Amino acid sequence: MFGLSLLLNANPIKVSPNITERFTSDDDMIELEIEEGDTKTWALFSSSTDESRTCIYYDPDGELNGPDTWYLNAEGYGDWDTLGPLDTSEPGIYWITCTDGADEYVLAGAGPLHAVKAQLYVTAVIIFFVAPPLLLAAIVVAGVTTVRRRSAARHP
User: Fold this and answer.
1) What is the mean pLDDT of the chain?
2) What Å distances lie between residue 89 and 63, 94, 114, 127, 147, CA to CA?
3) String of b and e for 52-81 (b: at least 16 CB within 10 Å)?
4) pLDDT tens digits for range 57-95
């Protein structure tokens, strides 16, 4: 279990994003409308790992933002790499554009990013909270078994 958790933590299972819209850096801004009460989260993905990719978006208030590019495990979502989730917490129209670096960009639900984050959280819990007590229990059982066998061998 411990080994499997380490493996999954180092190589989380990633699925391809459910693409809503494809665009290139040559396209004008794309529009994303968020309605009142809409709780779906969104992310941007690109077809390239080139570091020069730049995406920005304007929120309904007209403020300039960028995707949360801190995101770990950015590569390998099918044919796509993530640029990060978007903060679409306010209802209204968001305008998104990307420049340079990739052949194609996509706007998609952030579900694959949340799935990877959940995998990393669960494996960390297993590694730090489940595996150590199990290892300790196995050591105690082995110690007790050894003592009992030695005692039984001395006193037939």
Assistant:
1) 84
2) 13, 11, 16, 33, 61
3) ebebebebeeeeeeebeeebebbebbeebb
4) 999 999 999 887 666 667 778 888 888 899 999 999 999
